[in-house]
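QA checklist item 7 of 12: single-chain prediction sanity check.
[x] sequence parsed
[x] length recorded as 395
[x] structure emitted
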Amino acid sequence: MAINFYDYVSSYDFVPFAELQSNDDFKVISSNQSSLISTAIKEVYKKKSEVTIEFKAETIKKEKTILKFKLQKAHQYASDPDGYLLYKLTAVNGQVFVSNHNKKEVEHDLGVKRYDDIVEIVFSKNLMLSVKYIDFYYKDNSDAWLDLKGDLPDSWEHCGRVTIGASSTCYCNRDFTEEEMREIVKELKENTFYTAKDPASKEEKKYPITNLPYHSIDKIFHRNGYSGKFKNEEVIDNSFKTFTKSLNTIFTKYEINTCKLKIHFLSQIYIETLYFSQTIETDNNYTERYDPYRGRGFIHLTWEENYKKYKNDNNMDIVSDYSLVAKDLSISADTAGWYWRKGSSKGDINKIANKGTVEEVTPYINALSFNLKERKDAFNILIKILKYENCNNKK
């Protein structure tokens, strides 16, 4: 839709756009310039640059890199040579800039700039890992009497954005988005198989569990009602939004914050929860021994003693109301995070998971290493999904 900007644009305005200069330290994923047209004179009023980049793996290993931007004229008649410019950095979803009072956005006022000026932004390793957007804004500084805006104050206008691609920041020290978590669940389920006889050939064949209606990629934690004795402990809110938020919270709280640690954690809870379908252990030959304190949560918290330890550490009474661990995903997640760092009798799982294998980690979760092959399969799938080869902190 054409928009008439003629009423407040004249040759006395400073109208730039910030053009990112090429650099060997990043690759451009997409680039375009959007234009706004004046209906009055049928000419381009303003251009705005929009670029998506990814820092190269070798770049992130450096202490810093420099991004350079050239100020171009966005309106051919806007001949005022200078004006005010600022840029704003926005952190990756869920992160903050610690050095700037825990803000999610930080502005840098550059003062007066001119066309063809080069603006340099020094990106430390920390910024390369934490910044999602770089946005430029300009404001005219003309007081000329012919300025068609008259005495109206100028406001900041957007003139360019650079988006840092998610693969640049890997999954270390950042939150998952809901969309990313949906994709992780989908990939895991589509690459987890069961064996059944082919109706035609009568031979045993492997099929993805997504062939089974109760393991649909769109459903999670929906089968507590099939657990047996405690089937009334249904999850209150089993949305992907709540699942994602719960995971992000404990990853920060318990410092499960690198790709490797997250891959280990997710692969274990995927099997513990029967492919993200239950937060309570199904009736079996063992459950009568420790009921009502049977396995609950993303990592099955079991035995009254462990329920009491969690209660004492977190001031939450899951002893009197043990069903909370199964019904509330935030508690399902938090008990798992607590167990991972503090609850295992073998010690802090982060220490072994940071460098260890699935074979080494699993006994910390399940003393008899039940379903070890399935846990290893899930780990290997997650290595691919999270593109661990591009991890900034790969050991």
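[x] summary fact logged: The radius of gyration is 27 Å.
[ ] second reviewer sign-off
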